[in-house]
Write a structure and sequence with these properties.
About 45% of the residues lie in helices and about 30% in strands. It is an alpha+beta fold. The protein has a domain of about 80 residues. Strands 1, 2, 3, 4, 5 and 6 form a 6-stranded antiparallel β-sheet that branches. The protein is elongated. The protein starts with a helix and ends with a strand.
Length: about 130
């Protein structure tokens, strides 16, 4: 085996590893997008975002309009007896905040223990209070 053959083999191996790395990255991105889309379709996500967007207290703290950011974190198990624990970033012209959601699915209906907005200035707005 000549030196040229050795280097061509190494070059082929490097290209193969590069292709595998790119494919792995693409799969990770697709998985992340799918997870975010799935969370956004759940009742706990939609209910808590609706509460925050329509809350005068949140408007006062963040300004108008208030919108949800792209990447919520947490989990939602929609099965009976399942639970939700979400952290949903929101923002307005006057600041940023996170909606924190804790709830349980009981017989197909969600019971919420906490839906709270924590602003970047340290304010806590309980969205379950009238």
């Amino acid at each position: 085996m000549t030196i040229i053959n050795k280097y061509s083999w190494l070059k082929g191996a490097a290209v193969g590893i590069g292709v595998l790395l790119v494919l792995t990255l693409i799969c990770m991105v697709i998985s992340l997008i799918g997870s975010v889309a799935a969370i956004r379709q759940t009742e706990p996500y939609q209910h808590s975002v609706d509460l925050a967007i329509n809350s005068p207290k949140v408007h006062q703290a963040l300004g108008e309009p208030v919108t949800a950011r792209r990447f919520p974190q947490g989990t939602v198990n929609s099965a009976n007896g399942g639970d939700a624990e979400l952290y949903i970033p929101i923002h307005g012209p006057d600041g940023n905040a996170t909606i924190r959601v804790n709830g349980t699915n009981i017989n197909g209906s969600w019971k919420y223990y906490a839906i709270r907005v924590d602003t970047d200035r340290g304010e806590h707005i309980n969205l379950l209070e009238p």
